[in-house]
Amino acid sequence: MTVKVFSTLLAAIASAIAVFAATSVLPTDPTCSRTYTIQSGDYCYKISRTQNVSTYQLASVNEGIIAEDCSNLSIGEQICLGIIGHDCTHTYVVQVGDSCESIATVSDITVADIHRLNPQLVDGCPNLYAESTPTSEPARALNFDG
Fold first, then answer.
1. Residue ranges per structural domain of the chain
2. CATH of 2-83 given 3.10.350.10, 1.10.1040.10, 3.90.640.10, 3.90.1170.20
3. pTM: predicted TM-score of the whole model, two decimal places
4. Which residue from 9, 14, 54, 146 has the highest number of Cβ atoms inside 10 Å of its Cβ?
5. How far, CA to CA in Å, does 27 sit from each of 5, 37, 59, 73, 83?
6. Per CATH, domain 91-143 is 3.40.190
7. By the 8 A CB rule, do 51 and 61 touch?
8. What is the pLDDT along the chain (146 residues), one digit of tens a residue?
């Protein structure tokens, strides 16, 4: 499931990558606003959830660095979590049954703003991914500031 969900996310990113940058940002790049050092047991959704970075932003900023299936994380490696001026640190973790409308209602944000801050979402938000069973991947995090 990880490969399918992350691959779907990266396909959406390909059409909206201009929001952050056309190229990846190395942790040593001065435009990188914050970094994270890979720990044992890390995977992309865990990093997203624990570091308050959306899965979209994590993949966008590290395009070409993190594999589409998130299989090439190396313990001790540093990755960039955001770009100065485009680093959303307020996120919402999608829950089972959520829709863009329900998220907008409980979060006091408009659906239009959800789409603006999360350009990987398609109209109607059918590509929201949430934790559906205790053994599935952790829920996707959405950007909520910017």
1. 2-83, 91-143
2. 3.10.350.10
3. 0.64
4. 54
5. 25, 10, 14, 14, 10
6. no
7. no
8. 444 444 444 444 443 344 444 445 666 787 899 999 999 999 888 898 889 888 788 888 898 888 877 889 999 999 999 888 877 777 787 888 888 899 889 888 888 888 888 787 888 888 887 753 333 344 455 656 54
